[in-house]
Every structure is written in C-alpha cells, then in structure tokens.
C-alpha cells in the first residue's frame, strides 16, 4: 500500500496508531530519508535514556514525600493561598490563641478545630486526606470546617517545606498535633504507614516547631494503647507502658519518648494526651462501634471478640465532646516553650494525661445498646480475640487531668451512642435508601 493511497483513503488507515505514524512520516520524507530517520530515532532514543536517568536520580535522592510533592502540582503557595491561611488564623477575642491543627479533617481534629474556632481562636487545619478510610467523609468534615471559616491546607506532616512555610506566614502560638496513622489492627497490614506518620511525621513536626521563632506549645495525641499488657486498673499515667501489644501502640509510646527528647534539648512545651477509644458523630469508620452499626443495619454478621477464659473484652469508650474539651483545656494550660531563638532558657513543660471516660463497657454491652438504638437485632459471631494487637480491656484514671486541666467526662456510652446513631442515620440515610457507606 502506498503512502499516497492510505492518505487519500481514510478507511484504509491501519488500526494501530504507531503504524499510522510510520506511514504518515513517509509522506513527508520519502524513501531517500532512511538514514536521516535512523539518526532522528537514535537521537530520540538517547534523549529518552538521558531524561529517564535524570528522573531516576532525582527520585532516588529525594524522600518519597518530597518526590510526590515535586512531581505533583503543589497544593500550596501563592498570594491567594497565603491570604486564606492568614484569614483562617484571625483571632477574634483578646486572649485568643493561634493554633495549627494537624489531622484537621480527621475525627478528633475536626471537632477540636470547630471548638477552637467557635470561641474565637485562630485555627488553621492541615490534612493529607489519605485513603485509610472513606475520603468523602474527610471531605465532608472539611466542608463543615470551611463553612465555619477554618481553612484546611492539603499536605503531609512529613512535608517540612510546607510546614516551614506555614510558620513563615503565621506565628502559631500552639500546635494541636492530631494527624496520625490510627487503628490497632491495621498495623499488621501496613506497618510502615505507622512509622511514616507516627514517628517520622512527629519528628518533622517537632523539628519545625523547635526552629520556629517564637516556638509554639505542642499538644499531641498519644493513646490508651500505650498501657499495652499492663494489668493494673484503672490505668494511671505513672503505670508501666513498656509492653505495647501492637505496632500502633509502640509508635505512640515511641512518640512519648521522642517528645521527652525535644522538650529536654530544645525547650519545647509538649503535652501528650492518651485518648481512650474515642467515639461519636463524624467518627472513624474503621472503629468497631461504627462498622458494627453499618453491618447491623445491613443485616451482616459482626465478630464480637472474647478474651481468655471467655471473659468479655471491654473499653473505656470516651465521647468526642469530652475529648475535645480535654484538648482545648490542654492548649489553654500549656505554658510557653523556652527555646525560642535557638537557645533554651530553662526547663519547659512536659505533660502526659489520660483522657478517658472512667467507666469501661464490655463489647457485648456496646452491641446491646446499638441493637436498642437501631431497633435491629445483630447477628453476632462470638469469637476468641485474634492476636492482632488488641488488648482485653482499658480503664482510665483521669484524676491528674481532672486536677490540672479541669477535665470531667460527662457523657455515658448510651447517651453518646444515641447521638452517634442519630448522626449516622442522617449522614448515610435510613437503610433502604441509597447510602454513602
Ligand atoms: O484508645 C485508643 O488508643 C485506641 O482506640 C481505638 O482502638 P480500640 O479501642 O481497639 O477500638 P476499636 O477498634 O473500635 O475496638 C473496640 C472494641 O471492639 C472489639 N472488636 C473490634 C473489632 C471487631 O471486629 N470485633 C470486636 O469485638 C475490640 O477488641 C475492642 O475491644 C482506636 O481505633 C485506636 O486508633 C486508638 O485510638
């Protein structure tokens, strides 16, 4: 087939694009250009090889986060973006603080951001919107925050240039660090995500905060899981925490030790909060109360874990509003860091508090409450607790938080779950209707 005939008759074009290209090129260069074509092909080949090598070198010398950031369109920077950041951080009361909330599109982060904004503090959110669970729920929380004037910057806590930029734009007085890889059982599937967020990410946050001038005070989320196999109840802050049962717990415990180092060397004021199984509206779909609700409504069976000797497992389930109040109280009582300007001027505050409900409830009782609220009988599979990082029970002693933060949980599980179920049904719809879950 001549190039002329294929050009003049479109139906005769072969189906493979490469072939089309080749035949079309013959129209322009004719038979006598074979040597020329081979030089062009060689030049093209070597250009691709050289460019490829440069890209590989560049990717290997950068950290994964840097690489991702540099290869993708940055979500931050520019005049309008800075204006939004500053606007979100406006303080509306005389004693208002300016807080960077990491994990702001998360469960606890969204509630704390709203609580701070409501009372007139300056609040800026940061979240990487990862896909650990339903991202649309995170976007919906972001929508809520946006309506209340809280801008959530999209970015990772490991992105040091972004964090530095935020501190250049706004002199944050406080950082509420809630971004983390949560979930006890998922640590067996994706261990590195815990190291990435809960250790490397925490260190990046501390690094940026220690170099900021003025240094902010930091409040961050540790976990009840640090008590691990501790059997002394209720759990007090002074109890042993050297027997973590999951990698999640181990990374949170490591975080507490890392906090000690940054406090000791750089004078950062740091408060760690050990949250006890936080639940409530806008919660996390990976948690048992949440997916039990979904599965019960969908008529699916649920696994109810049972401990050794058929003892029920139990948790000190803590309602989100109580936790949010505890976080705000921790911010309000945080003293200033002492290392601003790179020279530590004296010992800085280093605190750790349990934030729990002080009344554990067994998982079968949790299911009973859900059954009553949902008016649906659960299909229960009672199984021995798999060895997946779970602990048999948790129980907080909160007297320290009560004395020093004025922390006083007020919501029992029945009341809190009622609020959760009401939200769940309004958000996902009553079963039978099209659901987002
Ligand atoms: O306080 C914390 O620091 C942690 O709290 C939360 O962990 P947990 O207390 O383990 O909550 P969650 O998974 O809801 O399981 C609740 C109960 O249901 C039992 N459980 C669980 C799953 C299942 O299929 N069946 C079951 O019986 C299970 O054995 C358990 O007894 C957070 O997820 C975690 O990120 C961290 O913040």
TrEMBL record:
It comes from Picea sitchensis (Sitka spruce). It is a multi-pass membrane protein. Keywords: Isomerase, Membrane, NAD, Transmembrane, Transmembrane helix. The keyword Thylakoid does not apply. It holds the Pfam family Epimerase. Gene3D superfamilies: NAD(P)-binding Rossmann-like Domain (3.40.50.720). This is UDP-glucuronate 4-epimerase. The lineage of its organism: Eukaryota, Viridiplantae, Streptophyta, Embryophyta, Tracheophyta. It is found in: Golgi apparatus, Golgi stack membrane. PANTHER family: EPIMERASE-RELATED (PTHR43574). GO terms for cellular component: Golgi cisterna membrane. SUPFAM superfamilies: NAD(P)-binding Rossmann-fold domains. It catalyses: UDP-alpha-D-glucuronate = UDP-alpha-D-galacturonate. Belongs to the NAD(P)-dependent epimerase/dehydratase family. GO terms for molecular function: UDP-glucuronate 4-epimerase activity.
């Amino acid at each position: 087939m001549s190039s002329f005939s294929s050009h003049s008759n479109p139906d005769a074009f072969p189906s493979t694009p490469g072939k089309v290209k080749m035949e079309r090129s013959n129209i322009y260069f004719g038979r006598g250009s074979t040597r020329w074509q081979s030089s062009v092909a060689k030049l093209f080949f070597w250009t691709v090889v050289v460019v490829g090598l440069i890209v590989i070198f560049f990717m290997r010398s950068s950290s994964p986060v840097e690489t991702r950031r540099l290869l993708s369109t940055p979500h931050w920077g520019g005049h309008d973006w800075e204006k939004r950041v500053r606007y979100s951080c406006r303080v509306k009361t005389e004693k208002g603080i300016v807080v960077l909330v990491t994990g702001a599109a998360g469960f606890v982060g969204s509630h704390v951001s709203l609580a701070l904004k409501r009372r007139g503090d300056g609040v800026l959110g940061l979240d990487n919107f990862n896909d650990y669970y339903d991202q649309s729920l995170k976007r919906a929380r972001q929508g809520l925050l946006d309506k209340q004037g809280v801008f959530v910057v999209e970015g990772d806590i490991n992105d040091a240039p972004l964090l530095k930029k935020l501190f250049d734009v706004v002199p944050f007085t406080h950082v509420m660090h809630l971004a983390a890889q949560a979930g006890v059982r998922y640590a067996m599937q994706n261990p590195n995500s815990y190291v990435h967020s809960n250790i490397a990410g925490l260190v990046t946050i501390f690094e940026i905060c220690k170099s900021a001038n003025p240094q902010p005070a930091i409040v961050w989320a540790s976990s009840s899981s640090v008590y691990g196999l501790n059997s002394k109840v209720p759990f007090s802050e002074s109890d042993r925490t050297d027997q973590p049962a999951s990698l999640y717990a181990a990374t949170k415990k490591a975080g507490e030790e890392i906090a000690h180092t940054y406090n000791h060397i750089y004078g950062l004021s740091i408060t760690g909060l050990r949250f006890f199984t936080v639940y409530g509206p806008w919660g996390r779909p990976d948690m048992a109360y949440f997916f039990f609700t979904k599965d019960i409504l969908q008529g699916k069976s649920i696994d109810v874990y049972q401990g050794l000797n058929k003892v029920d497992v139990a948790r000190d389930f803590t309602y989100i509003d109580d936790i949010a109040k505890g976080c705000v109280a921790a911010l309000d009582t945080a003293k200033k860091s002492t290392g601003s300007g790179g020279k530590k001027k004296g010992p800085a505050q280093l605190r750790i508090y349990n934030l729990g409900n002080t009344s554990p409830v067994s998982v079968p009782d949790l299911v009973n409450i859900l059954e009553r609220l949902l008016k649906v009988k659960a299909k229960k599979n009672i199984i021995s607790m798999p060895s997946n990082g779970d602990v048999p029970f948790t129980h907080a002693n909160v007297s320290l938080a009560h004395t020093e933060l004025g922390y006083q949980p007020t919501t029992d599980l029945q009341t809190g779950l009622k609020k959760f179920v009401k939200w769940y049904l309004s958000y996902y719809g009553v079963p039978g209707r099209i659901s987002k879950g």
